[in-house]
Amino acid sequence: MSAAEHLTDRPAGHRTEPSAAAVAAAPTEGAPPVAGLLLAAGGGRRLGGRPKALLPYRDRPLVENAVRVLREAGCAPIHVVLGASAAEVRERADLTGCVVVDNPDWEEGMGSSLRVGLGSLAGTGAGAALVSLVDQPGIGAAAVARVRGAFRSTTSLAAAAYDGERGHPVLFGADRWADIVRTATGDRGARVHLREHAKEVVLVECGDIAEDYDIDTPPDLARLARTGP
Predict the structure, then answer these.
(1) Which of 18, 22, 112, 185 is an S-S bond match for 203, by CB 3.0 to 4.6 Å?
(2) Distance between CA atoms of 29 and 113, rounded to whole angstroms?
(3) How far is the C-alpha of 190 from the C-alpha of 193, rounded, in Å?
(4) Which residues sit opposite 36 in a β-bridge?
């Protein structure tokens, strides 16, 4: 199962029709910011133990690309959760302007990183967290900005869709964070919350401008040689 599936647990054939008005309407002036939350703690077990954050992309660590995408999409602040080889990532990657937090329990799975990341956003005044994964370079700023544009209030719940199937990134309004932290254990990520609130999820179609593949196995590394978004 891919990292993306761990977080969203999207079932085959799942459909949630988005509200066109909700997606198209501009956010209310003076609305709280949408924070970017990048999960970059994975140890790359199926990649021979190569931390995903440090995979080379455009001659730089992959984590830098993910941060750039969030920044160009208008997310602020940007919090980055590190785990595997965290000290080396801090040394080699330029994470200037980001709040970098370590997840000492990263080997327990994505749920632990999500808990750490959402916890780090407490008190920032962010109205929502837009959660992205470090190993999806096919998702660029245009797609992230579309999902960010679905933010309406602290109860918002939205996700990118690819041919109607829920994927990443995912936006969680701040009022939902406590429940996600409570239920995010092991590799379940936010799947429990998303399943229990499936009818509330606004899907934002991004299949025309992005690809939601993951870098999970050695054959996937060939995708990093592409120019990308």
Answers:
(1) 18
(2) 32
(3) 6
(4) 78, 130
Neighbours of 108 (CB within 10 A): 15
pLDDT at 60 over 70: yes
Quick one: average pLDDT of 50-57? 95
Bond prior to 77 in cis (omega within 30° of 0): yes
The per-residue pLDDT for 227 is 52
Let me know: does 11 contact 165? Beta carbons within 8 Å: no
Q: Which residues of 132-155 are buried (b: 16+ CB within 10 A; e: fewer)?
A: bbbbbbbbbbebbbbbbbbbbebe
Q: Which two tokens stand for residue 170?
A: 């995912």
Q: In what order do the strands lie in the sheet with 128-133?
A: 99-102, 78-82, 34-40, 128-133, 165-173, 157-162, 202-205
Q: Which residues pair with 220 in a beta bridge?
A: none
Distance, in Å, from the CA atom of 114 to the CA atom of 189, rounded to the nearest integer, reads: 7
pLDDT in tens, 161-172: 999 999 999 999
Q: Could you tell me the CA-to-CA distances from 214 to 5, 73, 126, 196, 229 in Å, in that order?
A: 10, 20, 28, 25, 14
Q: What does residue 170 show for φ and ψ, rounded to 5 degrees?
A: -125, 140
- Residues 171-221 have pLDDT tens digits of 999 999 999 999 998 777 898 999 999 999 999 999 999 999 999 999 999
Residues making up the chain, counted from first to last: 229
Q: Which DSSP helix (H) or strand (E) runs through 177?
A: helix 177-183
